[in-house]
Amino acid sequence: MEQVVIRTGLEKIKGKDISFDRTGSHTLILLIPIKLIGIEGLKVRKFSLLALFFSLVLVISACGTNKANPESESNNAEKQDTQTEDLLAKVKDEGKLLIGTEGTYPPFTFHDDKGELTGFDVEIVKEIAKRLDVEPVFMETQWDAMFAGLDSKRFDMVANQVGIRPDRQEKYDFSDPYITSAGVLIKHVDNEAVTSFENIEGLKAAQSMTSNYADIAKSHGAEIVGVEGFNQAIELINSKRADVTINDKLSFLDFKKHKPDAPVEIAATLDDASQSGLMFRKGSETLIDEVNKALKEIIEDGTYLEISEKWFGEDVLK
Fold this sequence. Notes:
This protein has 318 residues and is an alpha+beta fold. It has helices at 46-65, 70-85, 87-94, 120-132, 143-151, 166-171, 212-219, 230-238, 249-258, 285-300, 303-312, and strands spanning 3-8, 19-22, 28-33, 96-101, 110-111, 117-118, 135-140, 157-163, 172-174, 179-188, 204-207, 223-226, 244-248, 264-281. The protein folds into three domains: 3-65, no CATH class; 84-179 and 277-312, D-Maltodextrin-Binding Protein, domain 2 (3-Layer(aba) Sandwich), CATH 3.40.190; 181-274, 3-Layer(aba) Sandwich (D-Maltodextrin-Binding Protein, domain 2), CATH 3.40.190. β11, α7 (212-219) and β12 (223-226) form a beta-alpha-beta unit. Belongs to the bacterial solute-binding protein 3 family.
């Protein structure tokens, strides 16, 4: 069978009546049986071949445009990753630092009598933002939602006395510690049976579900009753719908300062003090470095101590 040879630039394709064969990195040989196009011998009209050739070129071009360029995609992905990781540049360009916080967790982040957001964490972050020359924008949400908000890039960081612990460090990055505190076991004053952490097995502990204090309560056999924050936990104990809560000592002392007649008290204190840091998504190194620099300045120039003594009467970093 006689054949007509047309050179193109297609991928290798093989068919029953029409076949392609690769002769180089970009050249293909199209082998078309003469009988298929109704040509006797080798007397082929030029315009017929030309028309066939351009028809094939159109098909080839259409196929070629759908083929992805791996190198181009790789470059674009790398560019996007770089932009994503340079969170500091984004914050600087926008002039805003987006901070996730509860706003219901005194004395760290809560609303005062005028309805304004305030607290130890709030003041520390405001001072950091000031030194970064950006505006702090606090976005209030529940404890559990803060992690999801950080994951979805709704926030640039979280400031809510988040404990630095190994399981969180697997998914998130933290600033240098900015507070040190011990956990305490809080109970109703009428509950004389609870004197230590060993006594809470089988009792109801009011805890934020993803907090490290919830893990401690579980490890001692307590049944977890989910709450949105410290205030709700205390309310459940006051109403005896929960037996205990394990929470931050500084939060409890601040609560008692404002409500000395509340029928709750400390039953026991954890031996190991924990440290808290500002929490970030993985890949936020550029912003974290600048935050740590600002935090170091705040500590060294005495600003940190002023804020700490205002809220707790002592240096809570030690």
